[in-house]
Design a protein that fits this description.
The complex is a heterodimer.
Chain A: E1 2-6, E2 9-13, H1 21-28, E3 47-50, E4 53-56, E5 69-71, H2 83-90, H3 100-113, H4 119-125, H5 136-155
Chain B: E1 2-5, E2 22-28, E3 35-39, H1 40-46, E4 51-56, E5 62-66, H2 75-87, E6 94-98, H3 103-106, H4 116-143, E7 150-153, E8 156-159, E9 165-167, H5 168-175, E10 183-186, E11 224-230, E12 237-242, E13 252-262, E14 265-274, H6 277-285, E15 288-292, H7 301-314, E16 318-323, H8 326-332, E17 335-343, E18 355-360, E19 365-369, H9 374-385, E20 392-396, H10 410-422, E21 426-429, H11 432-438, E22 445-454, E23 457-467, H12 470-473, H13 492-496, E24 499-506, H14 521-538, H15 543-550, H16 554-567, E25 577-585, E26 588-598, E27 604-614, H17 621-640, E28 646-647, E29 650-651, E30 669-674, H18 692-704
Parallel strand pairs in B: 5-6, 11-21, 19-20, 23-24, 27-30
Antiparallel strand pairs in B: 1-10, 2-3, 2-4, 4-5, 7-8, 8-9, 11-14, 12-15, 13-14, 16-24, 17-22, 18-19, 18-21, 22-23, 25-26, 26-27, 28-29
Helix pairs in contact in B: 2-4, 4-5, 14-18
The chains are: A alpha+beta, B alpha+beta.
């Protein structure tokens, strides 16, 4: 039995400790917002936070999450109201939407660490996330917009 | 003001069994050319199948059945946006459900050919306006006032003189008893309140908090997971397999041989069914399968293109389109060009790998998945498993990208076969490696392009292709040329250039191929438009002026003017390269100007892309912009990195590490402009793709003097 806290909720998971965290989250906990894209840490669709840091859950063993805090897209905000989610909605970022959970989770760490990212900062931080629909231009703009929204939110 | 007459004899008076909702749709009448508007109850009584487009309930809520898939292109937003406009309801009062596969009911459901809006918008406008008029008539009758004194707004009918108001929900029962109006007035473009506005997409909230259900997210009680080891050379049969290691993996429940139909061929694989996706994938890895693929060529990419080149040089092509005498003109011309262009095999590589949930029961089968063509799957499964069509229930989820691949019917068939074998629900998950190595692919094509110049103008164009034909691979005739090889070529050229021919030398291969976003235009556009740029330069003309000279069509002239204006064409910067291309695809024309410059390390960088889209009548300019932005990124990958290669029949690219996707830092600024006109609607999801590559390579020629005729090419080594 492996105990993991996901989005603030404790779960005792009865599974092989070698199972990638991705499949434990999706198949056992039923949280399907985290996506499978490549299984090889190439595309970032499976990005979640482990103790606040972005990890590729497709290549992270369940055992590594034991006793740790995991946050998935379902736990990014209470009401789809993280500044990034607001900006994503305002700027119509997603097309098919499949990669966007991972994009948002990567961007959330970037914004936390760097509240005023430049284009270059964004390109660097987001280089691990693929979008086949090609929404990159909007992702970049929406991260800038989210940075503004975060500041406005902090003031009010 | 447009008036649409709908034949009254196709309406039947509604009986009392209509229920309390107003439910209207279209049906295809055998006796009438156009589809006919009909009440749900009438359809039932008359025994005709209705495409149940809209249903308004007693709360005034509208439920719309979207018969097409949502794979990123935005039909989930653009279809209700059309309905809300003429029905006079707020977007928030429209609920969208995905239709199940049913060709008799909905007509073609294939989400391909950028056809959702252009194929249905006229019906959607009429339908919504008819429902609005019926609600107004019902209100007028209740008030005993003339209908002309009433109008509809935000889900209400209002009596103008008195200000009295009924909510739609209060009117549906009465309205459902009325005949649909004979004529219905449709708004002028200038009167639109919602159409042509960049309204936010309704599916975005679901796609930012993990709530959107894609195929891979579908779960059923008691569902197991399957992964399948398939023949690495795609075609072949299982000679034997050893599952001793597989069966030792905890969670693995079944291992068996499974067949899957791919059009007229059958493929075999070994299925591993387990209680988690991971156990199924691990079980598949542990299998030892021996294949018999002796009946098929073990092809090599270099040999394919060598053969293509030989064919276009030595063979007469099967004629596809011919006007005038191109051969004669080529012989007489003072100046001729004769060059060859080459495009590679490409993978679709949608972000969501193929997957499908199937539940086979004794008397029916139900399927859920990321599916572009639910009606095709319904018919296919019904035929192959001898199950009545209505007992094959095909449900569409959101698609994590499709690009043509998810219009194939192989993966649902395989899932059904696995469910049948285990006697319960199953989700079949394709790994990224399965998705990339199994195909089908966009076929590689080689183009021989010949042109003649006389007195500074084009006297002849001759295009000859060699390559696989999607139709042939599906079982079509091989003695016919591929009539798609001129797709992308603009119609006005046929009027301004006297001698033109397109011909094709079919080259059959055992490699599976399938539509890929913008289909043949994606490769034709590169060859044809690049070649026209070569001709312009040989004639000493500016590429935009050259097109202005040959595209004698009002819409094209306006498009060219717009391209010139937005790109600052007349004041082009020095030390930069500028390129141009214009292509037609699914009834829309897109022109692009690309600007490039040298990077400090010597490579090429794309500074800017200006894209102008003329898709005629349109719904949502922001969705159009997004589709063109995305098309440019997809084209960039296809031009500069993507190539599926075969070595001894095996696909060499397995995952994104060997099939590199463009990433954020690779992507140029794309500015998109939409032309305003009321011509018939064209496609939006695909036409932005074909012109990018020829415009890019033309810009590189402008900067470096080097003409790129073979894809993909390395931007850092030009």
């Amino acid at each position: 039995m492996i105990t993991v806290t996901v989005n603030g909720q404790r779960h005792d998971i009865d599974a092989d400790p070698n199972m990638p965290l991705l499949w434990a989250i999706r198949d056992i906990l039923g949280l399907t917002g985290t996506k499978y894209g490549c299984g090889a840490a190439q595309c970032g669709a499976c990005t979640v936070h482990l103790n606040g840091e972005s990890i590729r859950s497709c290549c992270t063993k369940l055992s590594r999450a034991a006793g740790q805090q995991i946050v998935t897209i379902e736990g990014l905000s209470a009401n789809n109201n993280h500044p990034l989610q607001l900006a994503w909605n305002e700027m119509n970022v997603p097309q098919c939407g499949y990669c966007q959970s991972g994009q948002l989770m990567s961007a959330a760490v970037l914004l936390r660490e760097n509240p005023n990212p430049t284009d270059q900062d964004i390109d660097d931080a987001m280089s691990g996330n693929i979008c086949r629909c090609g929404t990159y231009q909007r992702i970049r703009a929406a991260i800038h917009r989210a940075a503004e929204l975060a500041k406005e939110g902090a003031k009010s | 003001m447009e008036t649409n007459a709908i034949s009254r004899r196709n309406f039947l008076r509604v009986s009392g069994v209509a229920g309390t909702a107003l439910c209207l749709g279209f049906y295809s009448s055998a006796s009438a050319k156009e589809e006919q508007l009909i009440h749900a109850a009438d359809a039932e009584k008359a025994g005709v199948q209705m495409n149940a487009w809209i249903n308004i309930d007693t709360n005034g809520k509208v439920t719309l059945t979207d018969h097409r898939a949502e794979m990123g292109q935005g039909s989930y937003q653009s279809v209700p946006q059309i309905i809300a406009e003429e029905l006079e309801v707020d977007m928030k009062d429209i609920n969208i459900i995905f239709a199940q596969g049913d060709n008799k009911k909905y007509g073609s459901q294939i989400t391909g050919g950028s056809s959702t809006i252009r194929g249905s918008y006229k019906n959607l406008l009429k339908l919504s306006a008819s429902a609005r008029e019926m609600l107004i008539a019902a209100a007028a009758a209740k008030w005993t006032v003339p209908a002309s004194e009433c109008y509809a707004e935000s889900g209400n009918v209002i009596h103008k003189p008195s200000g009295k108001k009924f909510h739609y929900g209060e009117l549906v029962t009465d309205a459902s008893k009325l005949e649909a109006p004979k004529d219905v007035h449709l708004k002028k473009v200038s009167e639109y309140k919602l159409i042509r506005k960049p309204l936010n997409r309704q599916d975005t909230p679901l796609k930012t908090n993990g709530q959107a259900i894609f195929g891979l997210d579908k779960k059923l009680p008691g569902m197991l997971y399957a992964a399948v080891e398939r023949c690495p050379r795609q075609r072949g049969i299982v000679k034997s397999f050893d599952d001793s290691a597989t069966k030792k993996i905890p969670g693995v429940k079944h291992v068996f041989k499974v067949q899957m139909a791919v059009f007229n061929t059958t493929r075999e694989g070994v299925a591993v069914v387990a209680d988690s996706t991971w156990a199924a994938i691990e079980g598949k890895k542990a299998l030892r399968v021996e294949w018999d693929d002796s009946g098929f060529d073990h092809v090599n990419t270099a040999d394919i293109f060598k053969k293509h080149n030989e064919l276009v040089q030595t063979q007469e092509g099967l004629p596809v389109k011919t006007q005038g005498d191109p051969d004669g003109a080529l012989k007489q011309a003072s100046k001729t060009l004769d060059v060859t262009y080459q495009t590679p095999y490409q993978s679709h590589s949608a972000m969501e790998p193929l997957n499908c949930v199937a539940h086979y029961q004794s008397d029916k089968v139900e399927i859920w998945g990321p599916i572009q063509a639910p009606d095709w799957i319904q018919a296919d499964i019904s035929g192959r498993l001898k199950i009545p069509q209505e007992k094959v229930i095909v449900n569409m989820t959101f698609l994590g990208g499709g690009f043509g691949r998810k219009a194939f019917m192989d993966y649902p068939h395989e899932a059904v076969m696995i469910s049948k074998e285990i006697g319960g629900p199953v989700q079949v998950v394709w790994t990224r490696e399965d998705d990339m190595t199994q195909g089908p692919y966009r076929a590689g094509v080689t183009y021989r392009c010949q042109g003649a110049l006389e007195n500074g103008g084009i006297s002849a164009l001759k295009f000859k292709t060699a390559g696989q034909n999607i139709g042939h691979w599906q079982g079509g005739k091989t003695d016919k040329g591929n009539d798609s090889i001129s797709e992308g070529f603009l119609a006005p050229y046929y009027k301004s250039i006297k001698n033109i021919s397109f011909s094709d030398v079919p080259y059959e291969m055992p490699l599976p191929n399938m539509w890929w976003r913008s289909v043949y235009a994606s490769t034709n556009g590169f060859a044809i438009e690049s070649f026209l740029n070569e001709m312009a330069i040989a004639a000493g003309k500016d590429q935009l002026d050259f097109r202005r000279q040959y595209l004698n069509d009002d819409r094209c002239q306006k498009l060219i003017d717009k391209m010139e204006e937005v790109s600052g064409w007349k004041s082009r910067e020095k030390n930069s390269g500028y390129g141009v291309a214009i292509t037609e695809c699914f009834s829309s024309t897109v022109g692009q100007v690309v600007k490039v410059s040298r990077k400090s390390n010597g490579g090429i960088k794309i500074d800017h892309v200006w894209a102008v889209m003329d898709c005629g009548w349109y719904v949502n300019p922001d969705i159009i912009k997004a589709q063109v932005e995305g098309s440019v990124v997809m084209a960039l990958g296809a031009a500069t990195t993507h190539e599926i290669t075969f070595k001894d029949g095996l696909v060499e690219q397995k995952n994104f590490y060997s099939y590199q996707m463009p990433r954020m830092s690779d992507v140029p600024v794309v500015d998109v402009y939409v032309m305003d006109n009321d011509a018939d609607a064209g496609g939006v999801g695909e036409p932005g793709l074909p012109p990018f590559t020829p415009a890019l390579t033309d810009a590189i020629f402008d900067l470096t003097g080097k003409r790129i005729r073979k894809l993909p090419f390395n931007m850092n080594a030009v």
